[in-house]
Amino acid sequence: MREPGAYLNSFARRHIGPNQEEIDAMLGSVGLENLNALIEAAIPKNIRLNRQLDLPEAKSESEALTELRAIAKKNRVTRSFIGAGYYDCITPPVIQRNILENPGWYTAYTPYQAELAQGRLEALLNFQTMIVDLTKLDIANASLLDEATAAAEAMALCHAVVTARKTFFVADNCHPQTIEVVRTRAKPLGIDIKIDNFSRFKFDNTVFGALVQYPATDGAIYDYTEFVRQAHTAGALVVVAADILALTLLKPPGEFGADVAVGSTQRFGVPLGFGGPHAAFFATRDEYRRHMPGRLVGVSHDADGRPAYRLAMQTREQHIRRDKATSNICTAQVLLAVMASMYAVYHGPHGLRAIAKRVHSFASKLASGLSQLGFEIAHQAFFDTIRFELGEKSSREILARTERSGCNLRRLGPHSLGISMDETTTDADLEVLMAALRGANVRDFEDDKLAGTEFQIPQSTVRSSDFLMHPVFNTHDTETEMLRYLKKLESRDLSLTTSMIPLGSCTMKLNAAAEMFPISWPEISRLYPFAPDDQTAGYIEMCKQLEQWLADLTGFAAIS
């Protein structure tokens, strides 16, 4: 039995729809007495649900949060050095508080009506500028669902340009999740996927495109200049899936001839969140702009001649072109794209390069220490990820040892492991890693002192070009300046903080504060997507609950 006054504090009453007086007024206007009568009049009997839903009793906000906290505590956050496209990072508090946790940003609708969205459109133009600068390609969109999806969209672009061929090459050193998504997308399109070592692959007149990872999923840095030349000679296009932080130090894809660059902006201040949401980027050459997926922000002028932002080339998109659109995945992760762009605004080019150099320095220190322990470093050229060989030792045995020390590493083979550094890595992390690995090798490590940096990025792949030279990336490097800039942009947008929004359907809702602030809990935000199952029990429980409830609501046997 519910306590007195429970209805007043119920989640539904606080957040869903009109109050009783408004309901009565609307019913009166159509001549009906109650909601049951409305259902009788509006919904045919043959499609009504004639069973009780197997759902738990509704809860108040505080009860729901208490239950969610208990579930979240079943997650165990440890230090994950797995990499594979996901990296822990530091979200600047000024961005966390004023974007991620701010309804002025997270309740605004898709910016189809430009005059209501000038703030977000400027932030997204910053995002596009950031990607164009870092990739050195001509044009970038304002984000996609994730890196793997962006790679599949890039394959579709290549196929639209080189139409008479059916084979797409994927380098075997791409991230595993990217390979699987590309395979899935290729099947209904009738595309033949070839997976192999890029250095052995021979282009022929059946191949329309190729995908390589930069750096590779195991950390190796390769110079793809000759590979791109061979592809172009054969009439194929090349897609480079690039690490956005690495591009502050590595030669950008556009400078060695790539036709498309894709990747994730997660490590620009966006929490891990057990794998998402994170905004992907997509950049290409100007000649292919009509084949691009996603939204493009352009600069126009208003009736008085003042600069104004708007969505450009919308005839490519599904809200206009429907099934003939360049992409039918409309989720663009704009909130996360805004966060990533503001991370670049806040740190600027010098700050981003300093973060990247620090990450590479830690990777170099660790590689040096691993060498002293007797492990073989598989690649001498790397940015943040080291692959090392264990000799006769089992990788599963070593993984069990490091997990007991609170560190997750990546198994790359029966006798090889990978370790990735990130923005949050400290000297203490290196000490824990070395202590966990000591004794698991051919000879003991004499002391805890790591040798100096021996590993350098090859000169042929070192970046020499400038990036982020626009004033917006060189002005707001104090919290006061950043706060004022964010508030200025927020004030130029219409959100549910000021008005109901007379557009759309899928986002016409207020995400309640009680629903939103758990995303900042470390048990939710800092959990790595490929962490062992015994560390993710809370997320698994939430997913199973949601799958069960959705299956019951929809009548399907199962929901993914």
Describe the structure.
The chain is of the alpha/beta class and 560 residues long. The chain is 37% helix and 12% strand. The strands form four sheets. A seven-stranded mixed sheet has the order 2-8-7-6-5-3-4, with helices on both faces. The chain has a four-stranded antiparallel sheet with strand order 11-12-15-14, with helices on one face. The protein has helices at 11-15, 20-29, 35-42, 61-72, 93-100, 103-106, 118-135, 147-161, 176-189, 225-233, 318-321, 334-372, 395-404, 427-437, 479-490, 513-516, 522-525, 537-554; strands at residues 79-80, 139-140, 167-171, 192-196, 207-214, 237-242, 260-264, 280-284, 296-301, 307-312, 376-377, 385-389, 407-408, 410-413, 416-420. The longest helix has 39 residues, at 334-372. The model is unreliable at 440-448 (pLDDT under 50). Helix 5 (93-100) packs antiparallel against helix 12 and helix 7 (118-135) packs parallel to helix 12 (334-372). Among the domains are: 1-50, no CATH class; 107-332 and 498-512, 3-Layer(aba) Sandwich (Aspartate Aminotransferase, domain 2), CATH 3.40.640.10. Strand 9 (296-301) and strand 10 form a beta hairpin. The radius of gyration is 26 Å and the shape is globular.
